[in-house]
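Exam prep: given the inputs below (a chain plus iron/sulfur cluster), describe the expected output before reading on.
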Amino acid sequence: MLQQTQVKTVIPYFNNFTKKYKTLKHLSKSNEKEILKMWEGLGYYRRAKNLLKCSQQLVNNYKFKLPKTLKEIKKLPGVGEYTGNALLGLVYDMPTIAIDGNVKRVFSRYLNKEIAKINFEKLILKNKEKLFSTNRNADFVEALMEFGALICKPKDPNCINCCLNKSCKYFKSNRKIKNPGKKMIKDKNYDIYCYINKKRQIALTKKNQIGFLKNCNLPTIKESDNSAKNKNWKFLTKYKNSISNLKLNINLYYKFSNKIPATHNWHSLNNNKEFIPSFTKKIFKQVSILF
Ligand code: SF4
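Solution:
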C-alpha cells in the first residue's frame, strides 16, 4: 500500500484491510471485486490485484509460507527485486538490502558519487562483511529506509545530527554531488466521451488503452483530437487530473443516448457498491451537474 503513497493516506485503508482480512487464508478467499472496493481511492490498483493473487499462490502452492530465496520469492505476483529483498530481510532476518530511491540516495551521498555511477549490487557484495556485521538484519533493512526518509532526506539532510557525518564524503566535501530530481511531469491532453441517459446512468467500459487505468471502468477516453466536433458531442467542462508523473488536461464531452457501443455497460451515477476508481468518480461528479 505504501508504494507511491503517503503514510497518512494509507493508515485508514491499512486498518480496514487488516480488520477484514485477519489471516492469509481470509485474504486468499476474497475476490477481485471485493479487494478493489476496499482499495478504492488508493490508486495503483494493480497492487491490490497482485496482493490477492499472491495470497492465493502462497496458500495453494507454498503451504502458507513465503519462499526463502530471492529467485523463488520473485515468482510471486507483484514481487520484484526491491520487495523480494525487503521481505527476505524483514520476515526471515536475512542479510539483504531493499534498494529503493531513498537507500540509493544515502549511499550516493555517503560516497559523494552520483547514483548513476554506482553499481549497487557490486558495492553491497564488496562491503557485505561491514554492512551485515549485525545479527539484526530485519532492523537493518527497516533502519536504512527510515534513515533515508528521516535523516538523509531528499532535501536538507540533517547532517549535523547524523551519526555518519564523521565519515560521510558528502558532508565533508566542498564539491557536493547532485542527483537529478524526480522525473519531469508530463502534460497530456485527453478527451473523455460520456454516454448518459435520463435514468442517471453513464456508460463505462474496461476496454481502454490508458495504461495507468487499464482494465478499470471508464467512459471512452482518447488522446485529444478533433473527433468530438464531428460526432455531435456536447462539451461539458475541462479540468486537470494528476496521476503519478502525468498531468492530464481533460476535456469532458457528453451525449444523452439510449444506444451505447457493445463494449460499454450502464452504471448508475449514484451506485456506491461497485469499485469505481477516483479518476472515474471525478467524471461522475462533473456529469451529475447535468441532472
Ligand atoms: S552526513 Fe548528511 S549526507 Fe552524510 S549520510 Fe548523514 S545526513 Fe546523509
